[in-house]
Fold each of these.
Amino acid sequence: MMKKYILILLSVLCCIGCDREDETVDITVMPPATTIGAETFGCLIDGWLYVGGRYRDYGYWFGPSVDSPSIKFLYNEKQAEVDVSVMVKQDRYIRFTIVSPQEGQESEFTNARFGEEKLKNGTVTITRFDTERNIISGTFSGGRITNGRFDVHYKDQEEDLM
């Protein structure tokens, strides 16, 4: 019986020690526009600044908690699109799909959502799309979203499914 209590106590202490915030990410400042894979994301929605990278996204895989990045860009080469999911507040995401991304070109983003709220489609200008280093960088806007920028390493969809 004592072993159960010790196990429960250790589990609780472990969970308390998990910090869901990376306080080195300043959510009051738009990240700089870079093309080096700096793992940054920021945009304005209705004039309010939303920055990715501060909060951690915890998922569960057969019980244990898995810490995963809060900025996720998943490239599907067959469909020629990038699915974007960025945690900008605890339990609040910005999501959209970049259609046919090509370096130096303007693309459309579709299926935009802010939390559960559907947003208008917009455009993305891809400033870097490096398939060898898996880096995608660009700027975006549309509807209520303005001054958006990102510079991240993306994952290939096949790689993410394994």
Amino acid sequence: MIMSFSIIMLLGLGLVIFQIIKNQRLTRARNKIVISSLESSENITENYTKVSTRTESIIASGNRFLFLVRIFDEKGLGKFLFSLFLISMVMMADELLKLDLSSKDLMISCLIIIIAVIIIPGIVRKYIVNARIEKIERDMPLFVDLLAICVQSGLTIESSLKFLAENVGDINDNFVPFLDRLVKKIEVNGLEAGLTHLQKELPSREVSMLCVTLQQSLRYGSSIYEYLMELSSEMRELQLLKTEEIIGKLSAKMSIPLVLFFMFPVVIIIAAPGIMRVMSQG
């Protein structure tokens, strides 16, 4: 029993150490990427699905739960101690409740706990960040409409963005940290640099469309109000297409339980009397 527990602890410690080394390598790789991106040109790739660490840190600044999960996931010692606590609870439950678990069952339970503690925090982080980004994307047409109204009322683009950063929290508080950083970047380096920075920080197709529209207006001096209203309608059409795509996939998914739980029983009910009659005659 003690031997099995020791083996499990050594295996868990090895997994935690491996993840710490992996996180350190990823951190060094991210730092190299950031340095190279600062030295290179400011061309932005259209990879809207990849969420950077910077995006997650900005969202975590306004989400306490994500902040705690992120700290727990990046600290290998915390994972090791939490795994040790859960394993101790399992062994105490085995002794107090007289579960009579075998050494093999305990080893499997401990391995499941260790793997879950290592994997689940990363899955939770990814789910929360993607959910926040999707919520921002859903509210982008309304934000573009508000920006167009501000511009039409006589405000500049910079003043409009600053005004919305102060008042858009009632609509979507997840977008506020990005707008605050955008306003600060505009004050230091100008509007075009701030929009480029926003595209890097928030990997979203709708956000990229807005930034490109504003940048084209700056470069070519075109009227921004009509372009913003057209952009908001395009975003709503894209969201409608996404909804139609989900509905179209739903019918295909519903056919699986229909075949398994309806068609097969009906076939059996229809064919069973004939089969039983043939068997009785034979």
